[in-house]
Amino acid sequence: MIPDWIDTPSVMIDVDVLDANIARMASAMRTRGVRLRPHAKTHKVLEIGARQLAAGAVGLTVATIGEAEVFAAGGVKDLFIAYPLWVDARRAHRLLALGEAAAVRVGLDSVESAVEMGRNLGTGARNVGVLVEVDSGHHRSGALPADVVGIARAAADAGLPVEGAFTFPGHSYAPGMPQHAMRDEDSALTEASSRLLAAGFDVAELSGGSTPTALVGGGNAATELRPGVYVLGDAQQYELERCALSDIALTVAATVVSRSAPPGGKSRRVVVDAGSKILGSDRAAWATGYGRLLDEPAARIVALSEHHATIEWPDDAVLPGHGQRLRVVPNHVCLAMNLVDRVSVVRNGVVEDEWEVAARGRNS
Amino acid sequence: MIPDWIDTPSVMIDVDVLDANIARMASAMRTRGVRLRPHAKTHKVLEIGARQLAAGAVGLTVATIGEAEVFAAGGVKDLFIAYPLWVDARRAHRLLALGEAAAVRVGLDSVESAVEMGRNLGTGARNVGVLVEVDSGHHRSGALPADVVGIARAAADAGLPVEGAFTFPGHSYAPGMPQHAMRDEDSALTEASSRLLAAGFDVAELSGGSTPTALVGGGNAATELRPGVYVLGDAQQYELERCALSDIALTVAATVVSRSAPPGGKSRRVVVDAGSKILGSDRAAWATGYGRLLDEPAARIVALSEHHATIEWPDDAVLPGHGQRLRVVPNHVCLAMNLVDRVSVVRNGVVEDEWEVAARGRNS
After folding, report:
1. CATH class of B237-355
2. For an interface test with A, which of B67, B322, B357 has the most A Cβ atoms less than 10 Å from its Cβ?
């Protein structure tokens, strides 16, 4: 299944699986009547963003001005930087340039950032709107619902068009939490909306979403959702039962370089040449290891260093030999994509294209 | 201390601290009569490698053929790929080309890889030697000492010049372990050497080392050491008491984008714009958090996502305001360097140069 001329370690994307993931999420959002604005920080690839837009996404979400610049240069006309930006003079300059190329929204979660953003953007920013971030239980950034109106007023006073609110229910990334987090998201957006409306603001957008919550059924106040990981899948989503192994489009091709098969059969393990510098080293407390093996679900990656993954192999399966090539599923695909400059696009075991990870490393 | 025109997040290297780290390790190795071959996977920067060589390093260590190619193209004439390579036909082609430009050594830890390497390199590889990897207690790759001679024989039979043995005492990366791991390294190299000598092999090199063990005093059979992290320092080495905060040359400049200061004074925290996509997400079980703050040692990074670090601030210190810029020390500097294409070179708070991370992402 790994094309012969792929060197290891390297990232492969199965384009049929990718397209099926794009179609499934687009269809689910259409059925629900919610706009889809996929988070492009997951893939950072123009070609994947274009496929998402062609399938009906209203625009893309990004994490940084740098990512927005790459996608705008690639022709995307509607971008939301879902992050509480601190817009100093240099960032204001870049945002204004971005606003010439696309409709841009940015996040904010404090009076201070509203004042700074307004002062530095000045009156020229006709194409840059803001959504106030509200904390729905993830407790990272985001204002308390009670503070949303004060922040929106500060933004309006600073000359910024307030277009609604957004939240990230990141506490959905744990077993049993997606349903709970979706309800929290719904409550937070509902409360933010009520307060903004009562204070006289228009609420054009209530933006929510995450891959774990996007497909949870039930009422949701959100007008748009921003799932990211669904497009590629990863070991976290598999272990959270948010996708099947067959939905995982991205794997890292790796070669067995070392092997330990003691006669007693205890702790049979192989070491492959894919480490944290291509898989990323995210490991949630509930994860079973540092990633999974696509073709051997019972194997466990028990240790990870920069260029080695140590894999314990199940007793009842044949231990791979030296030089054998395996498909590794990273825990968190957003980090794996951010480690490579190019990915191989595979269909039916044949490499048919290579995509550039155009927004890789655009952290600022 | 963060130059005004640096955008956040971005990597800064204090060149005075860097040069002091280079000089200190070079001097310690000279005093001990051990050759120094710094591991360049830590920095991946030609300019830093050149400084290490100018200070007396005999050559550089790298992790992959790709890294070796970058440093050889940069003029480095002596390279050790300290990794049990699986040398298939394509890698053999690249190794042979590399051997035209530099003296190259590679690792192996099995009869199978010796046979494969010998077959694919053929008889033309005059400039490619091998060191047999021995496990000194890290239990990642590396042969048992009892197997070293069999592997060396297979390599010699396959036409490969066996030049000695190497080990990586990676179990030194835990509190209280450096001394213990150094003794294990010494034992493993001594035993490998005795066995190889008894079997009639020359043992030109016994290569060991790691930043935690390199400066541990006492006898060591190693003829060369390969520390990497010492050159930049990181939060892991600080927490292992292998360096002081003042020895840390690399920090990530970050801006406070969100802030939570409840009236009761409980859990006062800020969120900065540096996340796992620039800090890396390595966190050992014994680490106090996801990195440290250079200028506030009592602060703790309690959560890390791709573009956010959540920092709990000590009760008795002034909580930074929105827009304030902080210097973050990554846990594992080798991962942080691998996330950026360029770093700012700072002296006395002024940016005096920019270096390319030339071998970034060269995983294969």
Report:
1. mainly beta
2. B322
